[in-house]
Amino acid sequence: MADDDTDLAKLFENVEKRKSNALVDADRDAPGVAPKRYAPVEEDYVVGIVEDRGAEAYRVDLLGASVPGNLGALAFDGATKRNRPQLAIGDAVFCRVERTTRGGEAQLSCCATRGSKKEWMTGAATFGKLAAGAACAVASVSPAFARRLLARDAPVLAALGKHVKYEVAIGHNGAVWIRSGNTLDTIIVSNAVENAEHLDEAQVAPMVDQIVAGMHARTTLLVHGLS
Q1: CB-based contacts of 204: which residues, under 8 Å, 6+ apart?
Q2: Which pTM was predicted?
Q3: In this structure, which of 21, 138, 153, 180 has its CB flanked by the most CB atoms within 10 Å?
Q4: Which of 129, 151, 186 is the last residue of a domain?
Q5: What share of the chain is helix, strand, coil (3-state, %, to 5)?
Q6: Pick the residue with more confidence: 24 or 160?
Q7: Range of the structural domain that residue 51 is part of
Q8: Which of 129, 155, 187 is the last residue of a domain?
Protein backbone atom coordinates (compact mmCIF):
# COMPACT_ATOMS: atom_id res chain seq x y z
CA MET A 1 0.00 0.00 0.00
CA ALA A 2 2.84 2.38 0.85
CA ASP A 3 4.49 1.80 -2.53
CA ASP A 4 1.18 2.46 -4.30
CA ASP A 5 0.72 5.70 -2.38
CA THR A 6 4.29 6.78 -3.21
CA ASP A 7 3.80 6.07 -6.91
CA LEU A 8 0.50 7.92 -6.90
CA ALA A 9 2.03 10.91 -5.14
CA LYS A 10 4.89 11.08 -7.68
CA LEU A 11 2.45 10.81 -10.57
CA PHE A 12 0.32 13.69 -9.33
CA GLU A 13 3.42 15.76 -8.53
CA ASN A 14 4.41 15.46 -12.20
CA VAL A 15 0.84 16.20 -13.33
CA GLU A 16 0.72 19.38 -11.25
CA LYS A 17 4.03 20.54 -12.74
CA ARG A 18 2.66 20.01 -16.25
CA LYS A 19 -0.51 21.88 -15.36
CA SER A 20 1.52 24.82 -14.02
CA ASN A 21 3.64 24.92 -17.15
CA ALA A 22 0.53 24.78 -19.32
CA LEU A 23 -0.98 27.75 -17.48
CA VAL A 24 2.21 29.77 -17.97
CA ASP A 25 2.30 28.91 -21.67
CA ALA A 26 -1.36 29.80 -22.10
CA ASP A 27 -0.65 33.34 -20.88
CA ARG A 28 1.87 33.91 -23.65
CA ASP A 29 0.69 35.64 -26.79
CA ALA A 30 2.64 33.42 -29.14
CA PRO A 31 1.87 31.53 -32.36
CA GLY A 32 0.87 27.92 -31.82
CA VAL A 33 -0.34 28.45 -28.26
CA ALA A 34 -3.95 27.36 -27.73
CA PRO A 35 -6.24 30.20 -26.56
CA LYS A 36 -7.25 30.20 -22.91
CA ARG A 37 -10.87 31.02 -23.65
CA TYR A 38 -13.34 29.14 -25.80
CA ALA A 39 -14.81 31.00 -28.76
CA PRO A 40 -18.18 29.55 -29.84
CA VAL A 41 -18.36 28.01 -33.31
CA GLU A 42 -21.54 26.99 -35.10
CA GLU A 43 -22.49 23.33 -34.56
CA ASP A 44 -20.16 22.93 -31.57
CA TYR A 45 -21.52 21.07 -28.55
CA VAL A 46 -21.29 22.92 -25.24
CA VAL A 47 -21.97 22.23 -21.58
CA GLY A 48 -23.09 25.29 -19.65
CA ILE A 49 -24.79 26.49 -16.48
CA VAL A 50 -28.00 28.50 -16.49
CA GLU A 51 -27.19 31.83 -14.85
CA ASP A 52 -30.37 33.81 -15.59
CA ARG A 53 -33.83 33.12 -16.91
CA GLY A 54 -36.50 35.19 -18.62
CA ALA A 55 -39.89 34.55 -20.17
CA GLU A 56 -38.46 33.77 -23.60
CA ALA A 57 -34.89 32.64 -23.04
CA TYR A 58 -32.18 31.53 -20.64
CA ARG A 59 -28.75 33.09 -20.27
CA VAL A 60 -26.11 30.34 -20.09
CA ASP A 61 -22.57 30.53 -18.73
CA LEU A 62 -20.50 28.55 -21.21
CA LEU A 63 -17.82 27.71 -18.62
CA GLY A 64 -14.56 28.88 -20.11
CA ALA A 65 -16.00 30.90 -22.97
CA SER A 66 -15.33 34.59 -23.44
CA VAL A 67 -19.03 35.21 -24.15
CA PRO A 68 -22.33 33.90 -22.74
CA GLY A 69 -24.92 31.82 -24.53
CA ASN A 70 -28.60 32.48 -25.14
CA LEU A 71 -30.95 29.48 -25.09
CA GLY A 72 -34.53 30.02 -26.24
CA ALA A 73 -37.23 28.67 -23.94
CA LEU A 74 -38.72 26.73 -26.89
CA ALA A 75 -35.41 25.58 -28.37
CA PHE A 76 -36.03 21.95 -27.41
CA ASP A 77 -37.34 19.11 -29.59
CA GLY A 78 -41.08 18.85 -29.01
CA ALA A 79 -41.36 21.98 -26.86
CA THR A 80 -44.48 24.18 -27.04
CA LYS A 81 -45.56 27.28 -25.14
CA ARG A 82 -47.71 25.11 -22.88
CA ASN A 83 -45.35 22.16 -22.59
CA ARG A 84 -41.68 23.01 -22.33
CA PRO A 85 -38.74 22.42 -20.00
CA GLN A 86 -38.46 24.65 -16.95
CA LEU A 87 -34.80 25.26 -16.22
CA ALA A 88 -33.62 26.79 -12.96
CA ILE A 89 -30.61 28.96 -12.27
CA GLY A 90 -27.71 26.62 -11.59
CA ASP A 91 -28.92 23.82 -13.85
CA ALA A 92 -26.36 22.25 -16.17
CA VAL A 93 -27.43 21.98 -19.79
CA PHE A 94 -26.01 20.31 -22.92
CA CYS A 95 -26.58 22.41 -26.05
CA ARG A 96 -25.60 22.93 -29.65
CA VAL A 97 -24.27 26.28 -30.90
CA GLU A 98 -26.83 27.25 -33.53
CA ARG A 99 -25.17 30.49 -34.56
CA THR A 100 -23.03 33.32 -33.26
CA THR A 101 -23.88 37.01 -33.25
CA ARG A 102 -21.70 39.87 -34.37
CA GLY A 103 -20.80 40.53 -30.76
CA GLY A 104 -19.78 36.90 -30.33
CA GLU A 105 -22.66 35.73 -28.14
CA ALA A 106 -23.74 32.20 -28.93
CA GLN A 107 -27.31 31.41 -29.84
CA LEU A 108 -27.88 27.94 -28.39
CA SER A 109 -30.35 25.19 -29.20
CA CYS A 110 -31.31 21.87 -27.68
CA CYS A 111 -32.85 20.69 -30.96
CA ALA A 112 -30.99 17.93 -32.77
CA THR A 113 -30.17 18.46 -36.44
CA ARG A 114 -29.23 14.87 -37.20
CA GLY A 115 -29.66 11.41 -35.77
CA SER A 116 -32.47 10.67 -33.34
CA LYS A 117 -34.72 13.67 -32.60
CA LYS A 118 -36.46 12.41 -29.49
CA GLU A 119 -38.66 14.92 -27.72
CA TRP A 120 -37.43 16.50 -24.51
CA MET A 121 -40.20 14.84 -22.46
CA THR A 122 -38.84 11.35 -23.15
CA GLY A 123 -35.65 11.99 -21.19
CA ALA A 124 -33.74 10.42 -24.07
CA ALA A 125 -33.10 13.54 -26.16
CA THR A 126 -29.49 14.21 -27.15
CA PHE A 127 -29.53 17.75 -25.76
CA GLY A 128 -31.19 19.35 -22.77
CA LYS A 129 -30.97 19.60 -19.00
CA LEU A 130 -28.30 17.43 -17.41
CA ALA A 131 -28.85 15.54 -14.18
CA ALA A 132 -27.58 16.97 -10.91
CA GLY A 133 -26.75 15.46 -7.55
CA ALA A 134 -23.92 13.99 -5.52
CA ALA A 135 -23.04 11.50 -8.27
CA CYS A 136 -22.77 14.23 -10.92
CA ALA A 137 -19.98 16.70 -11.58
CA VAL A 138 -18.55 18.98 -14.26
CA ALA A 139 -14.84 18.60 -14.98
CA SER A 140 -12.81 21.25 -16.78
CA VAL A 141 -10.28 20.67 -19.58
CA SER A 142 -8.99 22.80 -22.44
CA PRO A 143 -11.08 23.13 -25.62
CA ALA A 144 -8.28 21.38 -27.52
CA PHE A 145 -8.35 18.37 -25.18
CA ALA A 146 -12.16 18.30 -25.29
CA ARG A 147 -11.94 17.72 -29.04
CA ARG A 148 -9.60 14.80 -28.40
CA LEU A 149 -12.10 13.36 -25.92
CA LEU A 150 -14.83 13.64 -28.53
CA ALA A 151 -12.79 11.56 -30.96
CA ARG A 152 -13.37 7.82 -30.94
CA ASP A 153 -11.34 5.67 -28.56
CA ALA A 154 -10.09 8.48 -26.32
CA PRO A 155 -7.58 6.60 -24.11
CA VAL A 156 -8.76 7.97 -20.76
CA LEU A 157 -12.42 7.19 -21.45
CA ALA A 158 -11.57 3.67 -22.61
CA ALA A 159 -9.39 3.06 -19.54
CA LEU A 160 -12.09 4.32 -17.16
CA GLY A 161 -14.66 2.04 -18.80
CA LYS A 162 -12.72 -0.97 -17.55
CA HIS A 163 -13.26 0.08 -13.94
CA VAL A 164 -16.47 2.09 -13.58
CA LYS A 165 -19.80 2.64 -15.30
CA TYR A 166 -20.36 6.29 -16.15
CA GLU A 167 -21.90 8.78 -18.57
CA VAL A 168 -20.32 11.93 -19.97
CA ALA A 169 -21.48 14.90 -22.01
CA ILE A 170 -18.45 16.58 -23.55
CA GLY A 171 -18.57 20.20 -24.64
CA HIS A 172 -16.21 21.75 -27.15
CA ASN A 173 -15.88 24.55 -24.58
CA GLY A 174 -13.89 22.19 -22.32
CA ALA A 175 -16.68 21.41 -19.84
CA VAL A 176 -17.29 17.70 -19.25
CA TRP A 177 -20.43 16.66 -17.37
CA ILE A 178 -20.07 13.34 -15.57
CA ARG A 179 -22.53 10.98 -13.91
CA SER A 180 -21.88 7.57 -12.38
CA GLY A 181 -23.54 5.25 -9.90
CA ASN A 182 -21.99 6.88 -6.85
CA THR A 183 -19.97 9.88 -5.69
CA LEU A 184 -16.68 7.95 -5.47
CA ASP A 185 -16.79 6.80 -9.09
CA THR A 186 -17.68 10.32 -10.24
CA ILE A 187 -14.63 11.68 -8.41
CA ILE A 188 -12.47 9.02 -10.06
CA VAL A 189 -13.75 9.90 -13.54
CA SER A 190 -13.42 13.65 -12.96
CA ASN A 191 -9.86 13.41 -11.64
CA ALA A 192 -8.77 11.03 -14.39
CA VAL A 193 -10.23 13.16 -17.20
CA GLU A 194 -8.62 16.36 -15.91
CA ASN A 195 -5.23 14.71 -15.31
CA ALA A 196 -5.13 12.87 -18.65
CA GLU A 197 -4.72 16.15 -20.51
CA HIS A 198 -1.27 16.61 -19.00
CA LEU A 199 0.06 13.09 -19.60
CA ASP A 200 1.51 11.25 -22.54
CA GLU A 201 -0.90 8.72 -24.02
CA ALA A 202 1.10 5.77 -22.66
CA GLN A 203 0.78 7.15 -19.13
CA VAL A 204 -3.01 7.47 -19.18
CA ALA A 205 -4.06 3.87 -18.44
CA PRO A 206 -1.56 3.46 -15.55
CA MET A 207 -2.77 6.78 -14.13
CA VAL A 208 -6.38 5.58 -14.20
CA ASP A 209 -5.41 2.27 -12.57
CA GLN A 210 -3.61 4.12 -9.78
CA ILE A 211 -6.45 6.55 -9.14
CA VAL A 212 -8.98 3.70 -8.94
CA ALA A 213 -6.76 1.63 -6.63
CA GLY A 214 -5.89 4.61 -4.46
CA MET A 215 -9.46 5.85 -4.05
CA HIS A 216 -10.86 2.38 -3.32
CA ALA A 217 -8.07 1.67 -0.83
CA ARG A 218 -8.77 4.90 1.05
CA THR A 219 -12.49 4.17 1.11
CA THR A 220 -11.86 0.67 2.50
CA LEU A 221 -9.61 2.06 5.23
CA LEU A 222 -12.22 4.67 6.14
CA VAL A 223 -14.97 2.05 6.37
CA HIS A 224 -12.82 -0.20 8.54
CA GLY A 225 -11.88 2.77 10.70
CA LEU A 226 -15.53 3.58 11.34
CA SER A 227 -16.58 0.00 12.08
Answers
A1: 155, 156, 159, 196
A2: 0.82
A3: 180
A4: 129
A5: 35, 25, 40
A6: 160
A7: 44-129
A8: 129
